[in-house]
Amino acid sequence: RYIIIADMKSGSISALEEEIFGFGEAYRFMPQSWLLVSEVSLSTLRSELIQKLGKLDTLIVGDTTHDKAAWFNFGPEADARMRKLWIKDAAAATQAYS
Fold it and tell me: Do 2 and 63 contact (CB within 8 A), yes or no?
């Protein structure tokens, strides 16, 4: 199960959406956000979807089944912050919000 969010500034949203729907059962729940059920791997999904993006477009794909994420075309600072938040110790995060 995946959550896919794109910010399309230069590419075609319809081409991206067609690619997403080609991977399995999907639902567009916001203008540039989808839920997808697919057996394809996170890396394969990301690799295929970025081929539909332009140089100004960004993408994040969350694999909710395996607690993984992949993204594309964020700057170095955003990339570092996202990576730090994603790999944060789950036990510490749970304790902080309890």
Answer: yes
How far apart CA 79 and CA 93 sit, in angstroms, is 20
What amino acid occupies position 37? V
From first to last of the 98 residues of the chain, give the pLDDT tens digit: 999 999 999 877 899 999 999 999 999 999 999 999 999 999 999 999 999 998 899 999 999 998 889 999 998 888 888 888 877 655 554 444 33
Both tokens assigned to 20: 């997403």
User: In this structure, what are the phi and psi dihedrals at residue 25, rounded to the nearest 5 degrees?
Assistant: -70, 125
Rounded to 10°, the helix 13-21/42-50 angle is: 150
Nearest to 7, CA basis, from 80, 63, 71, 85: 71
> Which tokens sit at 1?
């199960």
**Distance from C-alpha of 65 to C-alpha of 41, rounded to nearest angstrom:** 11
The pTM score is 0.83
